[in-house]
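Example S7 (structure tokens).
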């Protein structure tokens, strides 16, 4: 696409002078349409608001007829910019498209055509207008809405919703525009996901995984808005079971936690916390949240001064729910939680022979993840208590696991423990020595 076309914006388009008289002479618009356009075009927002108040559906009819009958690019862009401006000033005007008097007009068709065959400017405007207009229809339960019971073939709202979901997924996979495709498609999706049928078709189109990469910390105003709208989409999907299954198998949860940890934008934090609240009781989300350190993050969020009551309620709810989850965890889950957070202390299980007998094989899960984190603590922690407990736990693993010595040697633990034998803290040196003895002498 030519660069000037790619960067075209409404302000530039609305500066054009469109030869409405010529269109009337060539019978592309009627005399009535010309009168309406003369009254409306190039007028102030207040004057236009009055005209739309008095005769809104007539203007909608004129705009739709122009888009249907006139192919000239300059004019098509101009009318799309006019409609976009009209809806941006007051989104409730989308209801005008569903007025009784427009029952026999195919209100969606021109926009659907431009969504697939138009320039980027036309696609972007059409997607935005369609999302607002289709969402404003009064009957969403599958009974006939505007024009859908008429005799002639009229584009139905189902066609529009399906077409928009297809368009959004394509834009997210292979953006037509380098920096506008993704924000525009997410903006439409956030408007449309309130509809159950859209949730369903978005999940069927494998759309959930396209959202996950967009959940990442934001710095600029634009990226914060995109992050907010992405989180809005994820929150809306968290009410829909099939979408929750997709979220569970993706990197959505760790990414949301990463964002909420560092975000100061209240509207973003609020949406993520409300999403966590929805997911907490579903599947293994509760245990995953505990694993990823969410209880500590919730504590620090609760300590901040938020003004939003819903956010404060959701944080309290989440805090209670996570505490319940921790209570339900098995002793090994609790142990693993301690290790992953690096908060090692002499809680009873460390010195309990039954704990080690029953759970030693669980250290093999995820390619010895818990054991590897224990070794990382030995290398990186500056807390003498954590170092002493880590050395002791390593000696217990060697004692109780049939291949303990071999595994610990393969993971290069010996060098790390040897260094700690000269530690200034007596508790650390004592447990490092015990660990080395077990490593050399076996259980």
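Recovered sequence:
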């Amino acid at each position: 696409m030519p660069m000037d076309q790619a960067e075209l914006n409404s302000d530039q388009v609305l500066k054009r002078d469109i030869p409405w008289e010529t269109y009337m002479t060539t019978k592309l618009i009627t005399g009535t349409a010309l009168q309406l356009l003369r009254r409306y075009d190039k007028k102030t927002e207040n004057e236009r608001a009055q005209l739309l108040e008095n005769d809104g559906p007539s203007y909608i009819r004129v705009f739709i007829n122009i888009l249907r009958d006139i192919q000239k690019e300059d004019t098509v862009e101009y009318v799309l910019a006019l409609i976009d401006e009209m809806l941006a000033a007051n989104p409730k005007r989308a209801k005008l498209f569903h007025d009784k008097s427009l029952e026999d007009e195919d209100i969606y068709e021109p926009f659907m055509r431009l969504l697939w065959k138009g320039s980027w400017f036309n696609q972007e405007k059409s997607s935005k207008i369609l999302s607002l207009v289709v969402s404003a229809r009064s009957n969403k339960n599958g009974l006939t809405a505007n024009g859908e019971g008429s005799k002639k073939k009229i584009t139905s709202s189902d066609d529009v919703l399906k077409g928009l979901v297809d368009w959004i997924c394509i834009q997210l996979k292979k953006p037509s525009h380098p920096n506008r495709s993704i924000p525009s498609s997410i903006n439409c999706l956030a408007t449309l996901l309130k509809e159950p049928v859209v949730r369903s078709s978005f999940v069927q189109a494998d759309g959930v995984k396209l959202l996950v990469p967009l959940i990442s910390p934001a710095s600029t105003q634009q990226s914060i808005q995109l992050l907010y709208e992405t989180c809005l989409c994820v929150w809306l999907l968290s009410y829909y079971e099939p979408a929750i299954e997709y979220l569970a198998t993706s990197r959505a949860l760790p990414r949301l936690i990463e964002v909420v940890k560092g975000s100061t934008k209240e509207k973003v934090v609020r949406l993520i916390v409300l999403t966590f609240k929805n997911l907490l009781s579903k599947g293994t989300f509760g245990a995953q949240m505990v694993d990823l350190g969410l209880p500590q993050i919730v504590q620090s969020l609760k300590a901040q001064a938020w003004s939003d009551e819903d956010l404060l309620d959701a944080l309290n709810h989440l805090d209670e729910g996570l505490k319940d989850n921790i209570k339900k965890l098995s002793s090994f889950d609790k142990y693993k939680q301690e290790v992953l957070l690096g908060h090692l202390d002499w809680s009873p299980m460390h010195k309990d022979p039954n704990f080690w007998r029953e759970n030693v094989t669980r250290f093999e899960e995820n390619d010895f993840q818990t054991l590897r984190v224990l070794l990382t603590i030995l290398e990186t922690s500056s807390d003498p208590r954590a170092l002493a407990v880590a050395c002791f736990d390593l000696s217990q693993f060697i004692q109780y696991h049939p291949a303990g010595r071999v595994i610990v040697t393969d993971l290069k633990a010996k060098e790390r423990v040897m260094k700690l034998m000269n530690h200034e803290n007596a508790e650390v040196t004592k447990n490092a020595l015990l660990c080395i003895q077990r490593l050399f002498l076996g259980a």
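Notes on this example. The two ends are 72 Å apart (CA to CA).
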